[in-house]
What does this fold into?
Amino acid sequence: MGLRDSTMRSRRLALAAAALALLGPSAARPEEPAASPAGAEGALVPGPAGEVAFDHQVHAGQFKMPCLDCHVFADKSPVAGLPSGRKCLGCHKFVKEDREHPENTARIKIMLDRLDAGQPLRWVRVFAVPDFIYFSHRVHVAAKVDCKECHGDVATEKVVRQDRPFTMGRCLKCHEERRASRECLACHK
Amino acid sequence: MKVTRRGFLGTAVGALGTGVLAGCTDKLPRYVVPQLIPADDAVPGLARHYRTVCRECPAGCGVTARVREGRAVKLEGNPEDPVGRGALCPRGQAAIEGLYASARLGAPRAGDREIGWEEAEKQLAAGLQRALDAKKLVVVVTRPETGQLGGLLGAWLGALGQSPSQVVTFDAMDRPWLREGQARAFGTAATALPDLAAARLVLSVGDDFLEEGSPVEQARALADQRAAGGRMVYVGPRLSLTAAAADEWLPVEPGTETVFVLGLLRLVMEKAGARAGLAPATADALRRRLARYDVAAVAARTRTDPRALRDLASALVRDGPSLCVGPGRAVAGADAATLAEAVLALNALLGNVGRTLRFLAAPAPRPSLALADLYGRAAAGDVGALVLHHADPLGYGQVHAPFAAALAKIPFVAAFVNELDETARQAHLVLADHHFLEAWSDVRTRPGLAGVQQPVMSPVRGTRAAADELLAVARLLGKTTGLPDGSFGEALRGAYQPKEIEHGLRVEEAAPVVPALAPGLLASLPAVEPAGPAPGLPLVVAPSFRSLDGRPPRSALLQELPDPITGFSWTGWVELHPATAAPLGLRTGDVVELHGPGGRHLLPAFVSESIRAGAAAVPVGDATALLDGRGHLGAGARVTLRRTGGRVERPHPGVGGAKGGHQLVRTVDRAAPSLPRAAPLPSMYPPVKHPVHRWGLAVDLDRCNGCGACTAACYVENNLAIVGADQVARGRSMSWLPVQAEVDRSRGTPAYSFVPLGCQHCTAAPCESVCPTFATYHTSEGINAQVYARCIGTRYCENNCPYGVRRFNFLDWPRDPSERLGLNPDVTVRERGVTEKCTLCAQRIRGGEEQARLDKRPLRDGEIVSACAASCPTRAIVFGDLKDPGSAVSRLAADGRAYQLLAELNTQPGVFYLARRRRGSP
It folds into this structure.
């Protein structure tokens, strides 16, 4: 186990504690909800500083590249996928410098050197759902859910960050609005 | 202010502070590494399927491997394969476990240390060169390799300047008496193919064909035969799974099976000899030789009712086409070849040859060496080097004792293995071979059929293909004449069409042969008179899925699965009749010390009428500890028993099970196979609607033979934990679909039925109403769902389930990192403190529905199949949509034999059982 345990166990602990609180004489009366239960929302994940600081603002913003150009599996698979080294080289064997953003030229060089050496790139994961959750990109793409709705407007982000929580409440809110499935088993695996 | 339950929980959690939740995200994988160059049309997140061949036993069933992100996670059958026909046995299901086993070697070894492959090749070349320089023999001992690898081994020896015939095929579970008997009876080496499904009456002479041989194929055939109204009689000392599937079990005196069949043969000769079309000389010779086996003498010797013998003979003659199979391991004593002859003679007299017992012309066997010749050559000091290829003669206790002596005489021994075994421990060089799911090969189990084995994934560890290592060493030695230039895989790919590789098999025409009885058959026959008294009890060697290669079992999964008849898991047993056990004061669970000709062994007793009095049965993996070094894994040995005073608590058979000892199996008369219809009971619950689908199962108890393939498939598909012997004994087995045996003792010999008992997916489920956190609920598609993230482990549900199918995780069950690679990524691994149970393979339903929705089409019946249904060799389990009146499961649920378990509780299950058919009124 391991990878996803902390999440699952802590949620269950919380539920257990809540159930205990229900039974106990001094059960907290929830007339005044805590002002901002930031903890309940889950800690927001900061953006990455990967090996090669990838600039979504240039790719998705300035050049208006569609998300599916690089995340090629988003409409085919539960997993959106990250671009392969070959995919990056498809453009970058021609684009070796960025005159407008000189700081990017050095980054392109790092990437090209790595790929030339036959080493894959290592990306920092920004968005994730817990391991006990089934999330299918292709279903959401087919249902015309805009990528922005979960991932934010990455076209404006130099470094992508998770700017909204991935909580069950958020999932359910959207599922309700769109009359999508509200079965537990639709997502819980 | 209105307080909703959810709002309250959210607030309560908030009030608990952030400490509890601080660790929420930091343990997720930090990095994602996409491939540099993606594999062609590989899509992460979706499964790919590759056809290959199962090599867990020589049956060679075609399989389909499901591969996720480059890792095989599940095997199913290959529906195009005529052997397995899309199903798979428990052993095949456990292959995934072997692939990722932590005991697998990842590098070559010399002595106690790991070495590099270059060093290993050098050592192998040097060892071989020394043998060649000394003008000594190089011998290869291999597991059965019926395909091109077998040919390559010979060619490799040829290239070294050796005779290609120096290949010994080692198969401890071989049944040489069948070949010998056939050679004597028919004078042919053609491949015999019994067709159980075409026979109206099957007679098995101790042949446990549901446990060994080609069990998946035979299970299906027997179930079809039974469904078509056929009958089966089993003659043998022990009520095996095969005997339990028979309509009648005739437990003749152990060791007298040959006399019994000869008596039967004489009666059949009298009744049908005239129309059998025998040559007059053959008929005369037979009559003369059988003269002394008259009914009275045979019945007295075999201690059977003479009427049973006469009835059986009449039925065989009357209810053609019939089929006689055997002898199996359980009855194969010293005269097993004679018994095989007699069984074939029965078939010939009954006109079965060419009808239910077909023969196909077999290609000439490759020249090879017998084990005895190897022993002789080694003893004389003629063998300079030995290469073992997945052969472990020392793993069978004393059974192949002369092999140890031979091994000691050979200066250089190299062994290709997956895991270090007893023989490899004695080798100078151990070479880590690929698992069969990582390597190219092929198998030819019968004329006209080749199974193509292709790698379904890149190797888990730093292993190399044995064939390629042999080729590399030949190149090092500069001896490559007649060997392929490239790798063995390339050579193999050249021999098959891409389509054949894709489908995993090649089917060709095979020429049928109709052999006639040889006049000299049954030349030496046993006496009818009993032999003198001998000490001890005859030992019955029982084939078992626990150890299909005959060694003590290695697979944790196969050991954890309870034996279907005895209910034991994680241990062997000695099966004794109450009349045999009583004088020794033995009860089930008492530890017995057995003394056999080859050694002693401690085993718990299983006291039951499922064995004839005056015999002791031991599963084959344990029998190896008792047998002596004649290389014979069969009947004929005798054992003495001694009570030790120790006790083993037998895990409850099936674990869990319906509470209050309710009888689950219902039977109907074969003549009128339908149950009385019960009127719907009133319910206090509002009616439940299933708007689109209502998933469910139908389980035909008449087809289920208790093999446990469904249980094993469920373990692999749903990442079930293997908890080990101690925890199983505490009743903590996590099996979602145990197969429960129910015994009807009302008619003399016990009649076994088997019930695969998983969650019933009740519409009015008692578990749901008692869950304080709504962790379990009824979905709109009829699944009784368990949401692990909500479960807080009260176990109220388990307490309230009348079927006893819910499992609680008392502990976290450790998994080796390499074993984790084999987990199904579509199913959560549950942790300590949550309850789990059958989900009807919700992940498969979800995946199937998603695909249909994206394709904008309705689901087809049979598109989604639960793991248990997919694996079932007899197709006893059918999964589908009960709301679709045309679905296979709906048709079965509407059958006259269909019923629901404990229907009187009005739980309205989504699982239907079809009553067992028996002759006469239930």
Remarks:
- The longest strand of chain A covers residues 123-124.
- Chain A is about 40% helix and 0% strand.
